[in-house]
Amino acid sequence: METLGDALPKEIERVQEIIREYEKIPAGHLAAEMMKADVKRAQEAMMSGDLAGMLAAYQALKEYEL
């Protein structure tokens, strides 16, 4: 079973890959900025040890698809 501490960094990396793809197309820049904001919130929650914030960020990141 994977812990949130293991799963969240993987989701951050997955979404960062999606961001790179979205930035390649002009219509994708707004979505990329929204994803970047969610990645930043996830990273901040991890650094501060905010479990509720980490869980919310994980759920938000899981919804992004390419």
Number of strands: 0
The backbone outline, from C-alpha atoms, is elongated
Structural class: mainly alpha
Mean pLDDT: 97
- Quickly count the helices: 3
| Secondary-structure element pattern, one letter each | HHH
Intertermini distance: 26 Å
Strand content: under 5%
Low-confidence stretches: none
Number of domains: 1
Radius of gyration: 12 Å
Q: Helicity range of the residues?
A: over 70%
Fill in the keyword field for this structure.
66 residues; mainly alpha; 77% helix; elongated
Explained architecture:
The structure is a single chain. It is built from three helices and no strands. With 66 residues, the protein is mostly helical.
Brief synopsis:
With 66 residues, the chain is mostly helical. 77% of the residues lie in helices and 0% in strands.
Element layout with pairings:
Blueprint: H1 4-22, H2 29-48, H3 51-62
